[in-house]
Structure formats: structure tokens, C-alpha cells
């Protein structure tokens, strides 16, 4: 079986270094908010080109704290793509704000300026753009200009786009702040839950440092009603180690994506549009295929594991019954037909060529 993602194979590359980090961590006697966390925060913010990086417990908490730090809450509307992973929507509702869902571009799967413009009301306070599947939102600069002109905050959900770059600006450095996830399956993945927020605003960074730590700057003195949303010290150490190889691993993903785009020629398969070399880090390689269940079964029978990102759009989830009557034609079409092919820095050339050949032999 060609696995969709082999996390053991990805992480076994670092076995010796992991053990050294663990030993250093154990011997330090300091297990929360220590030197490893500070080191990773500095390294990751520098990598993204931002002034500040704040490590937090996971990607959802990063999104939530990012919104809360800018006082987004009850009575506020936040524009967000309808086809995002549900975490983006959860963060909005968890701070008491109202998500305003808009359609993406059918080819890029990303939000468009035109659909944002049509959705702004007097209650709109922010826009969250999602660099979905690893591709930077193409119109990000135009969207940023629009937000600045209309006094709207611009936030990035960069959970899938570590290292993606447009005109020498990396994901995480376009908006007022950005949220990252380091879930194990991400391009930069921890060995457990982890996340971060990047920003260039010192006052926001300071507020975030407190919000993640019970709302406290000084122990036992609480300025905000905060949370225990700290990034684990040991995970920070692992992330510092893996950050050094992120660009190299992303380049392998780009090479695999290029092979898929060049090699797959089955008329039953719709491929993602090509991209400039650095604007997409191909967190997943999404294709569109009708009669998806038959295709997935065919791939499984031929020894290839696939996944669906994502089978049910947020507005159709039971958790958001109040949104169930909404209809988004493009979003629903994507979610009904999308399938992700194997892509990772440890897939071999032979495995990818095999996937291509199997896909090309598929008949509905």
C-alpha cells in the first residue's frame, strides 16, 4: 500500500536528534515556557519575516486567540471562505462573532476579492483568508489593500501553508496577524498538537503572550480572562529541529505536484491549477473526480491510499444547524468531488510514478 502520509517515516529521520532534545529537555528541569519555546518563536517569526511569533497549543487556539487579541467578538461579522476546514469557523463563533461565508474560486479553491466586497456590511470587522491546501491566496495584496481602505482587520489562516511565498513575502506576513497549526500531518508538524500566531504588532504580541498564559504577564496577576493555551516546551524543541528542513521538504512536495500535473492525463480527473514555484507548498494535492467513492475504492484496490479534504463543508455540519439551509454551489461541488493524492517529502519517485499510472488507468 502506498500510504497517503507516513508520519513514522517522516519522523524517523530525526530519531537521534529527538532523543538528544528529549534528554536536554529532561535535564533542564524547566518544562513550560522555557528556552526551547523562546528559541522556536524567534526562529519561526524570522522565517516568516514577522517581528513576533507566539507559540500556542494548537491551530484552533491560534485562530481563536488571534481574533480575541483584536477584540473581535459579539456583534462583529467576520468574512471567511465557505470551503475552509471547520476550525476557521469554530474560532469565529467561539469568540462570539458571526461568520459570513463566501464562495471560493473554483480553480484555486481560495477566497476572492470580488466575493469579499459583496459581503461587507456595517457589522464587518475582519476578513480571514485561508491559504487552503498550501496555496497562497492569489489576490492577497489586493485584499489587503481593500481591508486597509475599509478599516477591516485582515487575518490569515496559514495552517496549511508553512513556507509558501508570494513576491518574496511568506504566508503569515500579509495580514494583521496569522494563525498556524503544527498538527503532525502539516508540512511543519510536531509530534503532537502545537500552533503559533505571527504578527508585527508589539501590543498585540504582548496581549497574546498573556492570553495564552491565564491572562497573566506576572505570575498570580491576571490582566485578562485568559487560557492555558501554551505551546509545549518539548514540541517547540522538535519544531526548531524540523524547521531547518522545511524549505527542502516543501521543494520535494513541489516536485511531486509537478510530476502529477505533467503525468496525469485521465479526462475523468480535474487537476489543480499549476502555480508559481513558491506560492504553493502543496500541503495536499487535491483533484476533482465524479463518482468519488468508486475512485477511492479503485485506488485502494490498486494499493494507493487517498483522503478527502473535506467531505462535508462547515455550513452542512450538524454543529452549525443554523447554517444548514445556506447553499454555496461552488463549495458544495468541491466538497462532493475532491480527493487528495499521496504527497509528502518521503514518497519516492517510484511511488509517485505508480500513483500516476494507476490514476491514468481509472475508468468510471
Question: Which descriptors would you attach to this protein?
Answer:
Aspartate Aminotransferase, domain 2, 16% strand, Aspartate Aminotransferase, domain 1, three-stranded antiparallel β-sheet, seven-stranded mixed β-sheet, single chain, globular
Structure explained in plain terms:
By secondary structure, the protein is α/β, with parallel strands linked by helices. Helices cover 39% and strands 16% of the residues. A seven-stranded mixed β-sheet has the order 1-9-8-5-4-2-3, sandwiched between helices. The chain has a three-stranded antiparallel β-sheet with strand order 12-13-14. A two-stranded antiparallel sheet has the order 6-7. Helix 2 (15-28) runs antiparallel to helix 9, helix 4 (59-69) packs parallel to helix 5 and helix 10 (246-263) packs parallel to helix 13. The protein starts with 6 loop residues before the first helix and ends with a helix.
- Number of E strands: 14
CATH superfamily of the largest domain: Type I PLP-dependent aspartate aminotransferase-like (Major domain)
Computed CA radius of gyration, to the nearest angstrom: 20 Å
CATH fold name of the largest domain: Aspartate Aminotransferase, domain 2
| Span between termini | 22 Å
Share of residues in helices: 25-40%
Would you identify the regions where 5 or more consecutive residues have pLDDT less than 50? none
Amino acid at each position: 500500500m502506498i500510504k497517503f502520509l507516513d508520519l513514522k517515516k517522516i519522523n524517523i529521520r530525526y530519531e537521534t536528534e529527538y532523543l538528544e532534545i528529549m534528554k536536554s529537555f529532561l535535564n533542564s528541569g524547566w518544562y513550560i515556557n522555557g528556552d526551547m519555546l523562546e528559541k522556536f518563536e524567534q526562529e519561526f517569526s524570522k522565517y516568516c519575516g514577522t517581528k513576533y511569533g507566539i507559540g500556542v497549543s494548537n491551530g484552533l487556539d491560534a485562530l481563536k486567540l488571534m481574533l480575541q487579541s483584536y477584540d473581535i467578538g459579539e456583534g462583529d461579522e467576520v468574512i471567511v471562505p465557505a470551503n475552509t476546514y471547520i476550525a476557521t469557523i469554530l474560532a469565529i463563533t467561539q469568540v462570539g462573532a458571526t461568520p459570513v461565508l463566501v464562495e471560493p474560486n473554483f480553480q484555486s479553491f481560495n477566497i476572492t476579492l470580488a466575493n469579499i466586497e459583496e459581503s461587507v456590511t456595517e457589522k464587518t470587522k475582519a476578513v480571514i483568508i485561508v491559504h487552503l491546501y498550501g496555496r497562497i491566496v492569489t489576490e492577497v495584496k489586493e485584499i489587503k489593500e481593500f481591508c486597509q481602505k475599509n478599516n477591516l482587520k485582515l487575518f490569515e489562516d496559514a495552517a496549511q501553508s508553512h513556507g509558501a511565498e508570494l513576491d518574496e513575502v511568506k504566508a503569515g506576513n500579509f495580514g494583521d496577524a496569522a494563525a498556524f497549526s503544527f498538527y503532525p500531518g502539516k508540512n511543519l508538524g510536531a509530534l503532537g498538537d502545537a500552533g503559533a500566531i505571527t504578527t508585527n504588532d508589539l501590543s498585540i504580541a504582548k496581549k497574546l503572550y498573556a492570553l495564552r498564559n491565564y491572562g497573566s504577564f506576572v505570575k498570580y496577576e491576571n490582566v485578562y480572562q485568559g487560557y492555558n493555551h501554551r505551546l509545549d516546551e518539548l514540541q517547540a524543541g522538535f519544531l526548531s529541529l524540523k524547521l531547518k528542513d522545511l524549505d527542502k521538504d516543501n521543494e520535494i512536495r513541489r516536485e511531486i505536484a509537478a510530476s502529477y500535473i505533467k503525468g496525469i492525463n485521465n479526462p475523468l480527473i480535474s487537476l489543480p491549477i499549476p502555480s508559481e514555484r513558491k506560492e504553493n507548498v502543496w500541503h495536499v494535492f487535491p483533484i476533482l473526480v465524479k463518482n468519488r467513492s468508486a475512485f477511492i475504492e479503485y485506488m485502494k484496490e490498486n494499493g494507493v491510499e487517498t483522503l478527502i479534504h473535506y467531505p462535508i463543508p462547515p455550513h452542512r455540519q450538524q454543529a452549525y444547524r443554523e447554517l444548514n439551509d445556506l447553499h454555496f454551489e461552488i463549495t458544495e461541488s468541491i466538497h462532493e468531488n475532491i480527493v487528495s493524492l499521496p504527497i509528502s517529502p518521503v514518497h519516492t519517485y517510484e511511488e509517485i510514478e505508480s500513483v500516476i499510472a494507476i490514476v491514468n488507468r481509472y475508468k468510471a
